[in-house]
Design goal:
The chain is α/β, with parallel strands linked by helices and 257 residues long. The chain has one domain: Rossmann fold (3-Layer(aba) Sandwich). It is built from 7 helices and 7 strands. Helix 1 packs across helix 7, helix 3 runs parallel beside helix 4 and helix 4 packs parallel to helix 5. The chain is globular and about 55 Å long.
Length: 257
């Protein structure tokens, strides 16, 4: 096990300056971790420059995490640059700026679009966990945090059946791998963001955020703090769990008041 200031973290899906992935990288880096961040485009190097300017030791990789070869490249970058991998934050998913995303209800979604959504939102996490598992098991230590959503595990909205299925699958993946990896000193948990005001949020989503019991959308930093808690040394007896970060929206029974 490494010390707090020696830990190495991989954070996927960190290309957006206002997204959850970059917020998590910034917070973990400020705590002393060395970070490897990924995105599907060259904008990841803008994020690398920002983190380095803040004094955080950082490497960036352009990667399609549905491709096992690219996953291997990300793992190799962390291992070769910093000597190991202690933390994995699986944030990649939803949409990417390098590819289209087609949503649809059960009667209007093609099989190709179904597979594409599951690959982007679930398979990426599976491949990354599989990619780091051997190194973490050999070290006898690891923290894995998967970014799911309230959409799928605890709630749903109309017209995006594949996304909901994939994000629910992330929770199943979390619980199963938590059991598989517990004896090796590795914890696996998930966070489920609700309406979060990132750069990809629509005006309609911000209206829904304002209707939560808290009265606003959440921020990427607030989700990042939940991720950092689960990645912390002190969270060693928490594994296989889902933390919902949604301003109590999913538990509120009174609607339309």
């Amino acid at each position: 096990m490494t010390t707090m200031t020696q830990r190495v973290a991989i954070i996927t899906g960190a290309g957006s300056a206002h997204g959850i992935g970059f917020a998590a990288a910034r917070l973990l880096g400020a705590g002393g971790s060395r970070v490897v961040i990924t995105s599907t485009t060259d904008r990841i190097f803008e994020r690398v420059a920002e983190l380095r300017a803040a004094g955080i030791r950082t490497e960036g990789v352009v990667a399609d995490l549905t491709d096992p070869a690219d996953v291997d490249g990300v793992v190799a970058c962390a291992s070769d640059s910093f000597g190991g991998i202690d933390i994995l934050v699986n944030n990649a998913g939803m949409t990417s700026v390098s590819g289209s995303y087609t949503s649809g209800a059960i009667d209007g979604l093609s099989l190709d679009d179904w597979h594409a959504s599951l690959d982007r939102n679930l398979t990426t996490s599976f491949l990354m966990i599989r990619g780091v598992a051997r190194l973490m098991q050999a070290a006898g230590y690891g923290r894995i945090v998967n970014v799911s959503s309230v959409s799928g595990p605890v709630a749903a909205y109309a017209g995006d059946v594949a996304y909901h299925a994939a994000k629910a699958g992330v929770v199943g993946l979390t619980r199963a791998t938590a059991i598989d990896m517990a004896a090796a000193g590795i914890t696996v948990n998930a966070v489920a963001p609700g309406w979060i005001d990132t750069s990809s949020a629509s005006d309609y989503e911000r209206v829904l955020g304002a209707a939560t019991p808290v009265g606003r959308s959440g921020t990427a930093d607030e989700v990042a703090h939940a991720i950092a808690f689960l990645a912390d040394e002190g969270a060693s007896y928490i594994t296989g769990q889902l933390i919902t970060v949604d301003g109590a929206n999913s538990i509120s029974e009174e609607r339309g008041r």
